[in-house]
C-alpha cells in the first residue's frame, strides 16, 4: 500500500510541476509580448522626438540668422545713408536740387 501512496505522490508532484512549468511558460510569453510591444512603441516615440528635435534645431538656426540680420539692420538705422534710403523709398522724398519726372504711357487697344 505504501507503494501506491508513493506513486500517487509522485503523480501529484509531476502534475504540480507541469502546472508550474506551464505557468512559467505562459508568464514568459506574456512578458515577452509586453516587452516587445513596449520596445516597438518606444522606437516610434524615439523617431518622433528626433524629427521634432531636427525641426526645432533648424528653426533655431533660422532664428539665429534672422537675429543677425536684424542686428545688422539695427546698426544701419543710425547711418545717414539708411535715413536717406528710407526717406526716398517709404516717404517719396527727394533732395532740394532733384526733380521728379513722370512719364505717361499710352494704353494700346488690343
Task: Please give a structural write-up.
It is a single chain. With 110 residues, the protein is mainly α. Helix content is 78%, strand content 0%. The model has no long low-confidence stretch (mean pLDDT 87). The chain has one domain.
Instruction: Give the DSSP E fraction (strand runs of 2 or more residues).
Output: under 5%
* Domain count: 1
What class, by secondary structure content? Answer: mainly alpha
Mean of all residue-level pLDDT scores? 87
- Cα separation of the termini: 124 Å
Shape by Cα distribution: rod-shaped
Biggest β-sheet description:
none
Spans where pLDDT lies below 50 across 5 or more residues: none
Question: What is the alpha-carbon Rg in Å?
Answer: 42 Å
Helix-strand string: HH
Distinct helical segment count: 2
- What share of the residues lie within helices? over 70%
Annotation, overall tally of beta strands: 0
Organism: Miniphocaeibacter halophilus
Protein name: Septum formation initiator family protein
Short structural summary:
It comes from Miniphocaeibacter halophilus. The protein has 110 residues and is an all-alpha fold. The chain contains 2 helices and no strands.
Q: Helix and strand layout, with pairings?
A:
Blueprint: H1 2-77, H2 80-89
Protein name: Septum formation initiator family protein
Organism: Miniphocaeibacter halophilus
Amino acid at each position: 500500500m505504501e507503494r501506491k501512496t508513493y506513486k500517487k505522490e509522485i503523480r501529484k508532484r509531476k502534475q504540480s510541476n507541469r502546472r508550474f512549468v506551464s505557468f512559467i511558460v505562459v508568464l514568459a510569453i506574456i512578458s515577452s509580448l509586453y516587452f516587445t510591444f513596449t520596445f516597438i512603441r518606444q522606437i516610434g516615440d524615439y523617431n518622433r522626438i528626433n524629427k521634432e528635435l531636427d525641426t526645432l534645431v533648424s528653426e533655431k538656426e533660422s532664428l539665429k540668422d534672422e537675429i543677425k540680420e536684424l542686428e545688422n539692420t539695427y546698426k544701419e538705422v543710425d547711418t545717414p545713408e539708411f535715413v536717406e534710403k528710407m526717406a526716398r523709398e517709404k516717404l517719396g522724398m527727394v533732395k532740394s536740387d532733384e526733380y521728379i519726372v513722370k512719364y505717361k504711357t499710352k494704353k494700346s487697344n488690343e
